[in-house]
Amino acid sequence: MIKLCVLGLGYIGLPTALLFANNGMDVVGVDINERVVNTLKDCKMPFEEKGFQELLDGACKKESFRASTKVEKADVFLVAVPTPFDAELRMADLKYVVSACEMIIPHLEKGNIVIIESTIPPKTCEKRVRRILERSGLKASQDFYISHCPERAIPGNTLHEMVNNDRVIGGLDEKATELTRDLYSSFVKGNLYLTTSTTAEMIKLMENTYRDVNIALANELSMLAEDYDINIWEAIEIANKHPRVNIHKPGPGVGGHCIAIDPWFLTENTSDSSLITLARNINDSMPIHVLKKVKDLVNGIENPVITVFGVAYKGDIADTRATPALKFIKLAEKEGFTIRIYDPFVKEFEYPILSLEEAVKGSDCIVVLTDHSEFREMNPDDLYHMMKNPNIVDSKNVLSKQTGLELNYNKSIA
Ligand SMILES: NC(=O)c1ccc[n+]([C@@H]2O[C@H](COP(=O)([O-])OP(=O)(O)OC[C@H]3O[C@@H](n4cnc5c(N)ncnc54)[C@H](O)[C@@H]3O)[C@@H](O)[C@H]2O)c1
After folding, report:
1. Lesser CB count within 10 Å: N end or C end of the chain?
2. 221 and 157 within one domain
3. Number of domains into which the chain is organized
4. Are residues 9 and 62 in the same domain?
């Protein structure tokens, strides 16, 4: 039986480890966080997502998965540790990847495969990872193999996407690519596209950069639409009837720890990126734009109370990582506004999350920042009855879409 050692048991590493454990492999999952390891030792998930607990139950029953704080000898090492964004340097912070690779060195043996799933800048496998692992005395592509298999699953539907999405596999050499393909074909039902490690690194970053740039374009179009006093949502819907047009949705900015970050990993090594950097700046500035619309609406109201609808970075999930709502809230506080937050999914946040009634009663303006399905079901008239002043800024077009009413916010992004 193939033995796999997975380093990093977070949103990506843990379900990946469990999928391998449920598909014929002996898996030891390693995390430096003892709370995560101890929770897993009791066969409990350290965080919740659809289908994860059942997968863990299956692996526990088969005794094919163990959690540990220590790396051990294995046939395959899989690294799924964080790659945060260093905001000061505007580049990837590789310290976790470096330390995970260093933890593998004493256990590395001839014939082993080391797979990096973490999102990394182009050439990281070829230059950084290879150099670190070769400190073991073994030679990459000769004694052991390195490949990159980027993860593209979406939070909220991770398991389905991990199994069904197509995947990109890029080895440092052909044998690394083939060995990695054989491993993933144990549970991936999508196509496996084979390439080099640097191309695989680039593909993952290109995909998210494509989305970021297109969202920036949609945001810019929405601001132009305001000048012409037209409804951008209607305009986009009709423009997208064209067979070769797919304009993205505008909004209050881009959040999550992929789309808002990955473009910087792509541009960190060049002085030549104007479009990608501009797109990042446009998207980062959108909370300021939404705040401006709120300020226009509450102008003249003394000590206005602003209600934020949704702080998750996208609809119907509880994830608030890099959410543009945080920038909006901090800027609104600077204006002296009182902020109240309602989010039916988020339980933990830097600010208190209130009940719908607590958040809306006596409010001077509701600002929709996330497209949770629940907001689509709401009748703005019911909200108005609870508010002190009936103002709504709907940056996600969820309330307007439902009622078609002519509300204060029904202008482009707002
Ligand atoms: N979450 C996503 O939706 C997603 C999607 C695509 C790609 N990615 C990428 O996948 C990688 C992992 O992301 P995540 O969301 O799973 O992160 P996470 O923060 O949920 O989990 C990472 C885990 O790694 C552990 N860790 C850190 N250093 C370690 C080490 N040296 N050895 C063992 N464990 C260590 C941490 O304690 C943590 O539990 C990142 O590069 C991320 O950009 C994430």
Report:
1. N
2. no
3. 2
4. yes
Please identify which of the residues 5, 149, 204, 365 carries the catalytic annotation: 204
Nearest 5°: phi and psi at 361? -60, 125
Question: Same structural domain for residues 274 and 396?
Answer: yes
- pLDDT tens profile 157-188: 899 999 999 999 999 999 999 999 999 999 99
Cβ burial of 229 (10 Å; 0-12, 13-18, 19+) is: exposed
Query: What three-state secondary structure class fits 65?
Result: strand
Backbone φ and ψ for 296, nearest 5 degrees, come out as -60, -40
Partnered with residue 194 across adjacent β-strands are: 169
Q: Are residues 120 and 256 in the same domain?
A: no
Residues with CB under 6 A from ligand 1: 7-13, 30-33, 36, 80-83, 96, 99-100, 103, 117-119, 151-153, 155, 257-258
What's the domain range around 335? 208-403
| Other C-beta atoms lying within 10 Å of the C-beta of residue 281 | 10
* Nearest atom within ligand 1 for CA of residue 154: 3
| Burial of 72 from C-beta contacts in 10 A (0-12 / 13-18 / 19+) | exposed
The pTM score is 0.92
pLDDT in tens, 244-302: 999 999 999 999 989 999 999 999 988 888 999 999 999 999 999 999 999 999 999 99
Same domain for 181 and 215? no
Using the predicted structure, report yes or no on whether residue 411 has a pLDDT greater than 50.
no
Report the C-alpha gap between 346 and 340 in whole angstroms: 14
**CATH code of residue 46:** 3.40.50.720
Instruction: State pLDDT tens for residues 328-353.
Output: 999 999 999 999 999 999 999 999 99
- Ligand 1 pocket test, pick from 4, 5, 9, 12 with the greatest ligand atom count within 8 Å of Cβ, gives 12
